[in-house]
């Protein structure tokens, strides 16, 4: 029951923060990370080629990732975009975990519908409670893109 209360609070505050911060994309991320396999996924633009990619994951505990994608560019002349970033990763359970995570991924924004799909790889170096390195952290992102013009908000 304790985990359901924590989960409810995290989801509530994540949704409230997403609505208040004018996120450009909100959706779900599937993949193994921190013992969890589902996350609320959001993208917040910092300009034309930079953004924050944040996740709140839930499962056996609660995980929070906030990665700064400092490179966000098109792949040639295609509609695909690739990105690279890094940032902190927290896992709240027993044991507690604080990590530094990297991210490299690719995504596609549909023009006809406001949906973005993507895949990423997040190697993670756990610093606190134990020291470990995880290279097997992959994810699939499916997000709803906000905006009325049908273009990607982070272009």
Automatic annotation (TrEMBL):
Signal peptide: 1-23
Superkingdom of source: Bacteria
UniProt KW keywords: Signal
Designated name of the protein: Outer membrane insertion C-signal
Species of provenance: Algoriphagus iocasae
């Amino acid at each position: 029951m304790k985990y359901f209360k924590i989960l409810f609070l995290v989801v509530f505050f994540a949704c409230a923060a997403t609505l208040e911060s004018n996120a450009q994309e909100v959706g779900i991320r599937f993949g193994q990370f921190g013992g969890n396999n589902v996350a609320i996924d959001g993208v917040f633009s910092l300009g034309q080629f930079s953004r924050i990619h944040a996740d709140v994951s839930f499962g056996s505990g609660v995980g929070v990732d906030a990665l700064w994608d400092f490179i966000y560019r098109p792949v040639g002349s295609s509609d695909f975009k690739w990105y690279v970033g890094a940032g902190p990763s927290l896992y709240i359970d027993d044991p507690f975990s604080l990590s530094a995570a990297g991210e490299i991924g690719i995504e596609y924004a549909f023009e006809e519908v406001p949906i973005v799909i993507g895949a990423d790889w997040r190697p993670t170096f756990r610093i606190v409670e134990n020291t470990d390195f995880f290279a097997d952290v992959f994810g699939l992102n499916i997000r709803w893109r906000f905006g009325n013009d049908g273009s990607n908000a982070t272009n």
